[in-house]
Amino acid sequence: MTISVYMETLAYKYGGAEAYTASLISFIQKYYPNANVKVITEHLANRNILSASQLIEMQNSAYGLNIKNANFSVSYFDFEKIDEHSSKNRLEKIFRIIKREIYANYRFKKIRDFSKGSDLFINCSFNVVSGLGKKNICIVHFPRVRCSESGINKRLFWFRKKSQKRDFEYANSYDLYLPNSFFTAEHLKNRWGTVDSKIKVLYPPVKGVNSSVGKKNNQILLCSRICRPKKIDLVLRAFSESAFLKQNARMILAGSVIGEDEEFITEIKNDFPNVEFHFDPTRSELERLYSESAIFVHAMGLNETNPENFEHFGITTVEAMSAGCVPVVINKGGQKEIVTDGTGFRWDSLDELVEETEWLIKNPDEAEKIRQASMERSRFFTGKIFEDRLKDILSEVAHA
Asked: Could you give the CA distance from residue 372 to residue 256 in angstroms, rounded to a whole number?
């Protein structure tokens, strides 16, 4: 049996989608011990190509997994980052847009070719691609808009025909779509017209953290990829303007910087010298930070109206909750499904974020009650629950 898995950034980026993919591979090896697992991912131009064993070591170290070398292989194709916004020259910008669409069609064909002959193909990426496996499943972190609805695809005949083909095959080639939250599922139905019978919500597997720290510090943790869309700078600035938090709390920022905006990373390091930074932490280092911290904050979606710019689930939120961090997260997207009444706080403005964070530090007894409820809530998203549900889904697909 051959199972193919596609995730474009698996070999060079750390994040929720990558953690989900790695956990999925680990489960496949457990559930199908004799299967050949074939991974396709993209190669970042300025980094060394990882061997299969190096890729496995990277995933196991980052996410605390036990992916095995046996019957595991990896294939790469070069990743070409094409950003038309980085050019101020109009002709060059148009050229880059055209080049980006040509690359999208190349990637679409490459993934189809890769999936041929697979008993099961699983698309774990954000990209609009389709599979030619005997059975095909799409993990939906959040649905992209239809390719044919983007500017150049609507205006140029060749691109319009190609993008319509990609849209049609994405909408019809999968036996099942597995969105990571009900929030994501609703947008999948709205954008792609996917019928309910082809949708099963599957919350990502979250590896809990067994905190070994007895008494929590007044330590606030923000953990995510270090990039502008996460609104890290806005949170740090709001906290830096609170005299109470500056005197009574310690701010920690942890997350991946590989492949991210170096200018932004330098900017926050210079602007917030009192913040403690942990870039590209190991899993053990991250678990220590979770264990020591009393509060976890998350702000992706702040000042945004486009749902693509919200957090669509929130793996780090659940990890933090499992370690006894009280979550203080934005009241948008998938975070609303994780943090329920009594298990943390959801906020709509930075003023609320600061007020709720200050309240938790000023009221330790009440905070402890919320902390216990938060830890209990996190168990709803454990790997065991994910495995049980995925096992049933795969059995259903296999016999469909």
From this structure: 29
Q: Is the CB of residue 82 less than 8 Å from the CB of residue 103?
A: yes
**CA–CA dist 204, 139 (Å, integer):** 10
Token digits of residue 176: 């099942």
What are the tokens at 238? 């709001």
- The yes-or-no verdict on residue 154 having pLDDT over 80 is yes
pTM of the model: 0.85
How many Cα atoms occupy the beta-carbon half-sphere of 252 within 13 Å?
A: 23
> What count of residues does the chain have?
400
Strands (E) across 200-302 are located at 219-223, 250-255, 276-279, 295-298
User: Token pair 């709001």 is at which residue?
Assistant: 238
Token pair belonging to 98 = 């055209």
Query: In this predicted structure, what is the pLDDT of residue 90?
Result: 73
Number of CB atoms found within 10 A of residue 160's CB: 15
For residue 384, give Cα distances in angstroms to 23, 35, 207, 209, 388.
11, 21, 9, 14, 6
**Mean pLDDT across the stretch 275-280?**
94
pLDDT tens digits for range 98-145: 888 888 888 899 899 999 999 999 999 999 999 999 999 999 999 999
Q: Which residues contact 192 (CB under 8 A, 6 or more apart)?
A: 143, 146, 170, 171
| Distance, CA of 295 to CA of 374 (rounded, Å) | 11
The pLDDT of residue 208: 87
Extended beta strands in 108-203, E state = 120-123, 135-140, 176-179
Provide mean pLDDT across the span 29-52. Answer: 89
Average pLDDT, the chain: 91
In the chain, the N- to C-terminal Cα span, in Å, equals 17
Give me 341's structure tokens: 């009444």
Cα(236)–Cα(246) distance, integer angstroms: 11
DSSP string, 279-313: ES--HHHHHHHHHH-SEEEE-TTTT--SGGGS-SS
How far is Cα 169 from Cα 165, in angstroms, rounded to an integer? Answer: 6
Interacting residues of 248 by C-beta distance below 8 A, sequence separation 6+ = 218, 361
- Residue in the structure block whose two tokens are 């691109």: 159
Nearest to 18 by CA among 173, 123, 162, 125: 125
Q: Reply yes or no on whether the pLDDT at 84 is more than 70.
A: no
Q: Which residue has the tokens 């200018």?
A: 263
- Percent of the chain topping pLDDT 70: 96
H or E element in which residue 395 lies: helix 383-398
